Amino acid sequence: MSRLELIDENIRNIPEYVPGKSIEETAKKYGLDPASIIKLGSNENPLGPSPKAVQAILEYASKVHLYPSADAGELVDALSIYLNIPTSSICAAGPGMDGLLDNLMRLLIKEGDEVIIPIPTFSYYEIAARANGASVVYVERKGDFTVDIGAIQKAVSSRTKVVFLCSPNNPSGDVVPESDVRILLESFRGLVFVDEAYVEFADHSITDLVMEYDNLVVGRTFSKIFGLAGLRLGYGIMPYWLKKEYMKIATPFNVSLPAVKAGVAAISDKLHIEKSIAMVKEGRKYLQEQIPFKVYDSMANFVLVDVSPLNASEVCEKLLEKGIIVRDCRSFKGAGPSLIRVTVGTKEQNMRVVNAFRSV
Ligand SMILES: *Cc1c(COP(=O)(O)O)cnc(C)c1O
Questions:
Q1: What is the pLDDT of residue 19?
Q2: For the residues 193-210, what does the mean pLDDT come to?
């Protein structure tokens, strides 16, 4: 008997999460100086974290022998003001929004439950749901990658527990219209999870609907606009009945003390937030106009490029040779072979990307 049989077959069949490439592995593989490589494959903030967040981490480094508060209350208070949502509807979450997703699936999913995922989209929904015993029903997005709300409604069954929507969607950058979210919230008994990881770049949020509906959960993160991906901090906005149950099963102390302090500091740094948003809005317009392939409209800090008739892997390879890391989207279910996701960088980085695309 192989010990592998100790693991349930459903788990063994889950595809591995494919992360964006790192600077270290790219430098090694292509014989490049790490300092010359630009990393535009993981939608991080090229301006880095807020200096205030860095200061907070340094300041609390000497306090990490103490457990943090169990509910990250200080951060929840700051988020409540930032969002204008009562603290009774906010949960801080580590590690990252991924931790929130995992806790929610553990809370909600029973063997035999179904979840609906419109593809292509962020792949961790599938992993978190299947790891907890759910069957996934995939629904194709339309040709322009917007959500097909009619197709989702048709896919709903008596076993549907959760529908995942990502707005702006990773990797296509489009937002889900509020009217579509309302239609779904009103049309079935389960929960709608709306992932707003990129919402600050979009001028369009449905978070306020949590105050109106008792079956909506919004996921957010400090990894993107706030430049704290390495700290692993996220949060959820959900109705109080759900927060109460969620807090029972969330791993205790899942937000570290430096993460609580850095999160509070990052929210307070309005200048860094505004600078990050302005850079992204200018940069994505430039990339869309200058990259000599089809580029989809994006409301996020990345653009999706269709390089057909070339394929994504050969183009990514050419960019990697020049020290530019972008995201080959072939690992996204339903994305096809010709899509590349490019994070909006600084002006200089964007110019390098455009030149590299021009030369392929
Ligand atoms: C990056 C990302 C997340 C993950 O956020 P973490 O807080 O770093 O776990 C969630 N959803 C989408 C769509 C993302 O792109």
A1: 87
A2: 97
Q: In angstroms, what is the span from residue 104 Cα to ligand 1's centroid?
A: 15
Give the pLDDT confidence of 70-89 residue by residue, as tens digits: 999 999 999 999 999 999 99
CATH number, span 3-48+271-359? 3.90.1150.10
User: Phi and psi (nearest 5°) for 133?
Assistant: 100, 5
Structural domain spans, the chain: 3-48+271-359, 52-268
CA distance 320 to 41: 11
- C-alpha pair distances (Å), 360 with each of 22, 312, 320, 350, 353: 22, 11, 12, 16, 11
Across the chain, what does the average pLDDT equal? 97
Tell which one of 42, 122, 222, 255 to mutate to probe ligand 1, the residue whose CB is within 8 A of the most ligand atoms: 122
- Residue 179: Cβ within 10 Å count: 8
Nearest ligand 1 atom to the CA of 93 is: 7
Minimum-distance ligand 1 atom for the alpha carbon of 95: 9
Say which residues have a Cβ less than 8 Å from residue 68's Cβ, sequence separation at least 6: 253, 255, 256, 257, 259, 260
What pLDDT is attached to residue 96? 98
Q: What is the mean pLDDT of residues 7-29?
A: 91
pLDDT on residue 203: 87
Q: Which residues line ligand 1 at a C-beta cut-off of 6 Å? A: 43, 96-98, 122, 166, 170, 195, 197, 221, 223, 229, 234
Structural class in CATH, domain 52-268: alpha beta
What is the value of pTM for the model shown? 0.97
Q: 166 pairs with which residues across the strands? A: 195
* DSSP reduced 3-state for 340: strand
